[in-house]
Request: fold
Amino acid sequence: MNIQTMPDNKLFVLDTNVLMHDPAAIFRFQEHDIFIPMVVLEELDHGKKGLTDVARNVRQASRFLDELIRDTNQQTLNDGLPLSRIEHSPNGDNLNSSGRLYFQTSAMTALLPDSMPGNLADNSILSVVLALTSKFPHIKVILVSKDINMRIKAATLALTAEDYHNDQALEDIDLLYSGATALEDDFWENHGTQMDSWQEKDRTFYRLEDPLVSEWYPNQYLYMDNDSNFEAIVRRCDGETAILELARDYRSKHNSVWGIYAKNREQNFALNVLLDPEIDFVTLLGTAGTGKTLIALAAGLTMTLEKKIYNEIIMTRETVPIGEDIGFLPGTEEEKMAPWMGALMDNLELLGSRSGQNEWEQGATKNILMNRVKIRSLNFMRGRTFLNRFLIIDEAQNLTSKQMKTLITRAGPGTKIICIGNLSQIDTPYLTATTSGLTYVVDRFKHWPYGAHITLRRGERSRLADYASENL
Reply:
């Protein structure tokens, strides 16, 4: 094996979980070189069977490697395969890398401490990294792994180890777009010199020209923390010109949505965009008890049963258990999903119990609602197309960016998608707040004029839930 790199180049040794997470990871290191130990290929071979996303990623990674080694000889393998041989991935991503790919073509052993814990595969990879470090002292060898414990073990051996960062939508979750901006109390005095206002169909609009407009996004929520109670939605941004629309007030009971009303500013904005048929995609972030699911369901019932804009509501979520899996669930698709939909069903029961109804009327209302609300599993979403549906994706923080893309591209004409999640409650391995598919879509859709986002900050469940969220 003849590894020759440029003075500033690095040699990255990939752990198996990196390729399982992103099959195109070998093309994400720009001018740097990649090394794949033999044990990684063996683990990929063991994980290729099945219909899970991990198995699909493994098969795609194997296809990339097969295409790279096609029509090569042993000397070419020893000298490294140029990664620029593949220009585009099957899904259209541009795979631009000028580095080389090296395989382990001979036994590489380095002495590990006798007391080193862990499975044989991890220790084999660490042994390869140790051997490369000692054999090529002029090259900076870096282990890349999604496994925190693997990186810790590498650090105990004085090896350089890093997480795989290419899948991060943001460097810091605090930079995530919140969907709302507070205006200064003297905003109109300082920025309202060039402004027009008019009314259309009982709606009030403003046209504002100001350099500050370039910092706004379509469907962003603007408000003032003073007695004016000014709340507006950015309907259009074009350079330094923006069109604002005064937000409707859903806080009063006479203007309620399916029997509920907004209890704070963020809920009011969420209802504004949820009830707007011109907005096709809405993301709602918030901690437990902020009302994300309740207001999404209430808006869906209003748009489906009262305004008849959508044919039905479809609810789905990722099935990641909090504790130990309860095992096989009998029944149809909806019956299997029922235990995962407890939160949605609780809110649906609340919305179906309108005041003044007797027990029989409440039962009849519940049956009517259930006929228009369908529960579907994510496992059967691939290849489907939803027409005129109000699709709610709950617990979206547990989805990867690829899963989010698969779900959102299911939307046909007239379909609205609502993604709900809490980035502090991620249960999926190898996902963090910065790599979650929910974070990914919030960041990618903030410039789109038919999408909206809001972060709900105030808990409205109970004083007990609020105290627990803040202090536990």
